[in-house]
Amino acid sequence: MKLDKEKSARSNTVRQGWGITGKLVSSIVISVMIAVTILLVVVYFQMSHALLDKSEALLQTTTDCTLQETRAWMNSTLAMLEAQRDTIQYQDMQGSSLSGYVKHTAGQSDAYPAGLYVALLDGSLYHSSFVPGPDYDATVKSWYQDGLQSDVFTLGDVYIDENSQAYVVGVSGALKNGSGTVRGVAAADIVLDSISQIVSGVQIEDTGGIFLVDTRTGIIIGHKDSTLIGQHLNEMQEGMYSYTNQLIHEGKVGLSLYNNTYLQVKNVPGSDWMVVAYVSRGEVLQELKQLTISMLAVTILAVLGSVHISWIVI
After folding, report:
1. Which pLDDT tens digit goes with each residue over 176-203?
2. Which of 136, 127, 266, 237 is CA-nearest to residue 186?
3. 230 and 255 fall within a common domain
4. Helices (H), the chain
5. Residue that finishes a domain, picked among 133, 166, 192
6. Whole-model pTM?
């Protein structure tokens, strides 16, 4: 009987010991898990804010760089056109000399391969290749009317050229004689391929980028996806492009968030064009998600290791 009592006492002591050990190990594990969870949450939110701020700054910088490239391209092209127009004005070219000079401008620039063309107040048109029909009246055209109102070359509407099947933008400005009296309009059709190349070369994260819109017509005139060039924003009923069309109509520029996508909208100075940069918020946080998963895996291993060590020590 005495031996049985001693065995029973030892058994109760062992059970009590295991119970205390389990409680100590559980307390340590729970404490570690709570501390690590708090650490993970704090790190995640701090890093997510930092990455989103970085993303916004990247959108801003990318948009500004594209604006500068676009503006520089426009300025150089318009400067060449104005120099050619000034030559006509300075020499007060007429008739055959004007016709010869207009033909001479063809092919001098890839931006407007057809060269400069001139329409006088009497309706006569001087063009390097286009031969107007008997019913053609240059003075009723929108580019002519716009040009009469401006001493400098101004951008007109974007449209597709029937011969080249390329998108072009018309530019025009008043043409004067030696005494400064307006005698007509000088104009050109600028091919937008160069603009498209500037925009298509921009890559933000994996799927983000930039596109260019003519706000007067709502036409996409530059995009890395060539199938979208020439599409009208108002015909895109859903998604980011429809939302962009709404922003443009409401005159809203700057940063906005649409369906987990950041959009940066800015006007191209001296034109009716808008530059739109976009990037997925999920892509911006992708690296953080991967880091969080790695940290979680390390945490689980650390907890298991601490359980094992604590059990042995206790």
Report:
1. 987 889 999 999 998 888 777 888 777 7
2. 127
3. yes
4. 2-91, 95-105, 142-148, 193-200, 239-249, 281-284, 286-313
5. 192
6. 0.69
